[in-house]
Write a structure and sequence with these properties.
Elements: H1 4-7, E1 35-39, E2 42-45, E3 73-76, E4 79-82, E5 85-86, E6 91-94, E7 98-102, E8 108-112, E9 127-132, E10 139-144, E11 148-153, E12 158-162, E13 177-182, E14 189-194, E15 198-203, E16 207-212, E17 228-233, E18 240-246, E19 249-254, E20 258-263, E21 278-283, E22 290-295, E23 299-304, E24 309-313, E25 328-333, E26 340-345, E27 349-354, E28 359-363, E29 378-384, E30 390-395, E31 399-404, E32 409-413, E33 428-433, E34 435-436
Antiparallel strand pairs: 1-2, 3-4, 5-34, 6-7, 7-8, 8-9, 10-11, 11-12, 12-13, 14-15, 15-16, 16-17, 18-19, 19-20, 20-21, 22-23, 23-24, 24-25, 26-27, 27-28, 28-29, 30-31, 31-32, 32-33
Length: about 450
């Protein structure tokens, strides 16, 4: 098992606690395999039996089939049967061990771990292929946290579902939901992002709101005392955009392109030159204009308006993309290219898109999450699927999903919870096509 890449995190993050056996309490984590604590009160099974090298890139199959089944097919009763349609969409996102996509008709689909209802399909059963999220509706945007999800419909209403022990669903209580539940009655929500146990969102005019767990000040309210179960206004500033959360901190752009971060800073992931938590947004000192940011629990990367890529924070596995493993408390340039457009960070890996649609990933590859066909760690950005171009990428704790230019959804890395959506529970070191079950 190649689990060493993630096992050390329990000693690094304050507020860690031991994992629980199956069945776990809400927000306690997984049932088998090595558990990794990523947030107060939260344990996650990240590298399980699916990470055995012998399991990589072996499609789920029945030995009775004389030939290998194709994409979105499985061998059943000696013949290949369809698992559903090839997943295509306009947007894809990842939680720690689940994934969601919005298709061309703006329907929302989900797959992977569903132990706390984070798929929103009306039950707690995990899915290995995309399943329609309950309630229908047309969706504009979706975000995923550790074990909860939130989305904005085309009418501007905000909905959340999944685990709610810290009020991260924003519905005024701490009861879990296994189907989308509306957050308040406002219809002017514009962006939403989910951290480990909290959520932040913006409304028209660029006001910023956060709710859920707050032990590191990640709600940005000036304190670190107590959860909030309904959306709380962060400061008085207008013009927030591009907000992104992971673990216990957030970053976002304000005004003409200044970059601000707040919350947990135990590994310098706020980029402000020290390791002191911030309970309200603070600017990253730089004259640059920022265009996009992608945080992970322990590091962050961002792209400037000039297409430059900068990263900071933990760098144990080369996730800063600098060619080495030296951490940094302030942004450092990743290479010399100036054509980056977006970036996404998982736990200890990072992926970014270039202007021509080329996708590159780097950092820890123990689960195959870099998509390079092996388990090798990379300290510099490395091309994924040389023949393909992509329009977006999202990184989970040990898996990655991306949207090809033609709309095809592809995922790779840890598949132990079905989060790759290919019908199996094996890890994949190269991109595999996700599938959508028969639905509406």
């Amino acid at each position: 098992m190649k689990t060493t890449a993630l096992l050390g995190v329990a000693a690094l993050i304050a507020g860690c606690e031991a994992s629980s056996p199956s069945p776990p309490p809400v927000d306690a984590g997984a049932d088998v395999g090595p558990d990794v604590v990523l947030d107060a009160g939260e344990t996650l099974d990240v590298l399980d039996a699916a990470l055995d090298e012998a399991a990589l890139d072996v499609a789920p199959a029945d030995a009775a089939c004389s030939t290998a089944c194709g994409e979105c097919e499985a061998c059943r009763g000696g013949r290949c049967e369809s698992l559903g349609a090839a997943a295509s969409g306009r947007f894809v996102t990842t939680g720690w061990s689940h994934s969601l996509t919005i298709d061309g008709a703006r329907r929302l689909w989900a797959w992977g771990d569903n132990g706390t209802g984070q798929l929103g399909v009306g039950d707690l059963l995990s899915r290995r292929v995309g399943t329609p999220v309950s309630g229908g509706g047309e969706w504009r945007l979706v975000a995923a946290g550790s074990r909860h999800s939130c989305g904005i419909r085309t009418d501007g209403s905000l909905w959340c579902w999944g685990v709610n022990v810290h009020g991260q669903l924003g519905v005024g209580d701490t009861l879990d939901r296994n189907a989308p539940t509306r957050v308040g009655d406002a219809s002017d929500w514009t962006e939403v992002t989910c951290g480990g146990l909290h959520t932040c969102a913006t409304r028209e005019g660029g006001t910023l709101w956060c709710w859920g767990a707050n032990p590191a000040g990640q709600l940005g309210l000036g304190d670190a005392t107590g959860d909030r179960s309904t959306p709380q206004r962060v400061g008085t500033e207008l013009g927030w955009r591009g907000i992104a959360a992971k673990g216990r901190f957030n970053c976002g752009m304000l005004g003409a392109g200044s970059l601000w971060c707040w919350g947990d800073n135990s590994d310098g992931q706020l980029g402000v030159g020290d390791r002191t938590d911030r309970r309200a947004p603070v600017p990253i000192a730089s004259a640059r204009v920022w265009a996009a940011v992608g945080p992970s629990p322990l590091h962050a990367c961002a792209v400037t308006s000039a297409g430059e890529l900068f990263c900071w924070g933990s760098n144990d596995y080369g996730q800063l993309g600098t060619g080495g493993r030296t951490p940094s408390l302030t942004p450092v340039r990743s290479g010399s290219d100036s054509d980056w457009t977006s970036v996404a960070s998982g736990f200890q890996h990072t992926c970014g898109l270039r202007r021509d649609g080329r996708l590159r990933c780097w950092g820890d590859g123990a689960a195959g999450q870099l998509g390079t066909g092996d388990l090798t760690l990379r300290e510099v950005p490395t091309r994924v699927m040389s023949e393909a171009t992509f329009t977006s990428v999202a990184a989970g704790i040990g898996h990655t999903c991306a949207l090809e230019t033609a709309g095809r959804v592809r995922c790779w890395g840890d598949g132990g919870r079905g989060q790759l959506g290919d019908g199996g529970n094996r890890a994949r070191s190269s991109p595999t096509g996700s599938c959508l079950a028969a639905g509406p």
